[in-house]
Amino acid sequence: MEGPEGAKELAGVLAGLKERSGLSYQELGRRVFTSSSTLHRYCNGKGTPGDYDLIVRIAKECGADADELNKLLRCWRAATGQGQDPGPVSAAVDRGPSPVVGTAFAGAPVSAATAGPAARRPALGMRFALAAVMALVVLCTAVASAPYEAAPAAVPAPTGATSWAQTPKPVDPELFGVTMNSSSGAMPSFRTGALRLWDSETRWAQVEPARGEYDWSTLDRLLDGAEREGLPALFVFGGTPAWAAPDARKAPYPDGSRAAPPDDLNDWDAFVRALVRHAGARIDAYELWVMANHEHHYNGSVTTLVEMTRRASRIIREADRNATVVCPSITELWSAEAHEYLLRFAELGGYQYCDAAGIKLYQRRITDPPETMLEAVRKVDRTFQLAGYHLPLWNTGTTQTLPLNDPLEEATAADHAVRFYLTGLYARNWNLARMYFYAWGNGKIPLVLQAEGQPPTKAGLFVARLQQWLAHADLRSCGHGGQIALPENVWQCEFLIPDGRGTDRTARIRWTHAGTADTRVGADARTVEYLDSTTREVDHRDTVRVTERPVLIRYG
C-alpha cells in the first residue's frame, strides 16, 4: 500500500469519516480552517495533505476513534513515503511547526495542528463551531498592537508554539494538579484540582517492606484527605523493595529501594493486586512507573517495563474499570535519547495498555519562561505521531535535579506558577490533559506554592485565583505575537465564561514571556482583573499594560 494505493486508501477512510459525521464540506472546512474544495480533493484521492496534523484535526472533528486515527497515520505514511525511513529520532522530532493554513485568527493564519478533544469524543454541534469562527472574526478587528518593550535578549524566546482555535471545550479543573510531598494527610489550603502521590512515603518499598506484609497507614491518610476534599488521586509506582531485587542498583532514597524491576514479576502482580483491592475507588488513576528512562529510577529493560505495564493494566482494569491507567512517565524530553526510549516503548506495544501517557515537562533552566516547555510538548507530539499513538498527555513532574537550583524571587515565582498552568492550557492543542506541579508541602525547592504547616505563598494564592477565573470557563483559542496581531512577546488564551446571569461572555487572559507591552483591550471590553484580586473598569478606547503577570479582560 505505497504511493497511489496509499493515497487511495487514505481518501477512502477520510471520505467515510466525513460521510458518517453528517458534516458538509463547507462546515467541516470551517472547523479545520481549510477550504471545502481542498477537503473534497483529500476525500476523492486527488490530493494528499502534506502534514499529518491536518488529517488528525479533520478526523477528530468527524468523531474518529483511536483505531481510526492509527489507520489514517499508516495510510498517510504510505501515501507520502514518510513512513519508510524516518531517520534518526533527533531529526524526526525536531521538525518545525506545522504549516499554517486557512482563515485568519486575530489578523494572522491559524495552524492546522491538532486542537480537538480526545480521539474518542464526538465532534460538537455546528453552533459552537460557528461561534468560534465569529469570535475569531471579532478578534481580528478588535485587537491591535501598540508600542511595547521587547523581551530582554538574555531571556530565551519560546519556539514551536502555533496559534490555534477550536469549538469551545470546558476547562477541566483536574488540569490544576499538584504532587504531594507530604505523608501527614494534610491537604493544600488553596484551591487545587488533583493530587499525585510521590515523595509522600508511598513508594512500593515503603508500602510493602516485606513480601506479603503491607503498611497502608500513610497511603490511607493521604487518600482519606483527598476524599474529604473531593480531589482525584494519582498513585505512582516506583521504588522496588530490596527483598524483591536484592542485587539490583539502589534508587536514590534512604529506604533501600531498587531502581529496577523485581526479579520475579509475580511479586509485581501481587503488589498491584493488593493495592487496587485495598484502595478501591479512592485511587482514580495509576502512573505505572516514575521516570522510566532515568537510570536512578529504572534501569531494567524496556521489554520488561512493557510487560509490567501490560500486567498492571490488566489487574487494574479488572478491579476498577473507571480508573485511568497512565503509562510510565518519560523524562529528559529535551534529549533525542528520551524520544528514542518513547519510540521503543511504543514499538513494543506498551502504549496500547494505557489511557494516557506520562511525560515530565519542565524548562531547561528553572529561570526560563514556562512557555519554553511548549517546544518539548511539540516534540513529544511529533514522536507520538511517528509511533502511531494518540493518547492524552499527563505532565506528572519535573527534573530530578530541581532541588539543586536557587530559589526564585517571590514575584517571579508567582508569575511562573500561574503561567505553568496557562502553558498547559496552551498545549491542549497537543492533547495535554493534566499538569501536576511539583510539589506541594516541600518548602525547599525554587518555587513553593505552600510549605506544609505554612500559609500559601503568593504563587499559591495566584494559582488559586487563576482557577477561580476559569472555574466555569470554556477554552476556545490560544495564540501569541504577530500570529494574532499582538506584540511578539504577548500571549493570549480566549475563553467563554458565564456572567452572573449565566450568559457566556468572552474573556481573554494576556501575559508576556518577558518584558511588557501596551495593548488595546478591544471592542466591548468591560473590566481588567488582576491576580491580586483588584479590578478596574475599561472601555474599547483603553489600553492595558501586559506584563509577565497574567491579567484577565472581560467583555460583553
3D structure, described in words:
Helix 1 packs parallel to helix 4 (52-61), helix 1 (4-21) packs antiparallel against helix 5 and helix 2 (25-32) crosses helix 4. This protein has helices at 4-21, 25-32, 36-44, 52-61, 66-80, 89-92, 126-142, 204-207, 217-229, 265-279, 302-319, 336-347, 373-387, 410-426, 458-469, and strands at 100-105, 108-111, 145-149, 164-170, 176-180, 194-197, 233-236, 285-287, 324-330, 356-359, 393-395, 432-440, 474-480, 490-498, 504-512, 516-520, 525-529, 535-537, 543-546, 551-555. Strand 17 (525-529) and strand 18 (535-537) form a beta hairpin. The termini are far apart. The strands form 4 sheets. Strands 5-6-7-8-9-10-11-12 form an 8-stranded parallel barrel, surrounded by 4 helices. Strands 4-13-14-15-20-17-18 form a 7-stranded antiparallel sheet, with helices on both faces. It has a 3-stranded antiparallel sheet with strand order 3-16-19, with no helix packed on it. It contains 15 helices and 20 strands. Helices cover 34% and strands 19% of the residues. The protein is globular. The longest helix is centred in the first third of the chain and has 18 residues, at 4-21. It is an alpha/beta fold and 556 residues long.
Average pLDDT over all residues: 86
Seen as an oligomer or otherwise, the chain set is single chain
Percent of residues in helices comes to 25-40%
Derived from helix and strand composition plus strand pairing, the structural class reads: alpha/beta
Please tell me what the overall shape is. globular
Number of distinct helices: 15
Major beta sheet summary: 8 strands, parallel, barrel
CA distance, first residue to last residue: 53 Å
Strand content: 15-25%
